[in-house]
Amino acid sequence: MAKSIPSARPNIPSARPNQLFRNLNSKIASIPMIFVALVIFLGGSVWTVVYSFTNSRLLPRLSFVGLDQYERLWASSRWIISIQNLAIYGVLSLIFSMVIGFVLAALMDQKIRFENVFRTIFLYPFALSFIVTGLVWQWLLNPEYGVQHIVRGFGWEGFVFNPLYDADLVIYGILIAGLWQGTGLVMCLMLAGLRGIDEDIWKAARVDGIPMWRTYLFIVIPMMRPVFITTLVIIGSGIVKLYDLVVAQTSGGPGNASEVPAKYVYDYMFQAQNLGQGFAASTMMLLTVAIIIVPWAYLEFGGRKRV
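Request: output the structure for the sequence above.
Response:
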């Protein structure tokens, strides 16, 4: 009976190199960025949350008062108005920016003449600061010499268009300026995504007789999912920190009708000299962002099954 000779497994080194020393130069170069993120951003956030439970006034001090600052915050009609305004501005800005930006990008993707000229025209407002944009649209929406005055000069004496002076419409006047400035960037992002679509897909859709609108809706848009996510993040970050446009156009008026959270924080921290209240409002803004971002990040990156 032949003896079975055990097969000797060769001592093959691991195919995977030591992960710790891979791209070592890149990891060393990223140390300052990691340090800044941990110390300034994370540390500053923790510091803000801690001092939001104090009665800090002109200078921060560790004199804890529990939830008093938060009770005052949510009892303030000014804060409630600011939350409502941000919600209205945020939802409408997301919808209109994405829709208008995508439609413009789809039109530009038809290989039209003078494409570079039109792209520059649409993108130019994004090069302006929010202060300049706000001042320009403050003039355009002024009833004395803006759009209303021009239209009435053509004979329509009953025409009324003064949203910045109407407490019920003022946030929509600010929205117009925001869309004018930001839609061009959305168009460029969408256009870059459309240019990345394989030309064979369009040819196949035309051969199969699929209408163009169905091609966009059921084929192109799902393929552009990463572009839409990137655009949403960019627009969302601008919505949360909305401040410059409001200050330039209305300074929060008429009354407190156009108040937004970022302006509320700034006014209490640097004008009312009430750091505790400003820290509480900042913490609520941070919590709101976390409630939205964390579940999305988990579903987007952590909830997928790894193959």
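The chain has a mean pLDDT of 87.
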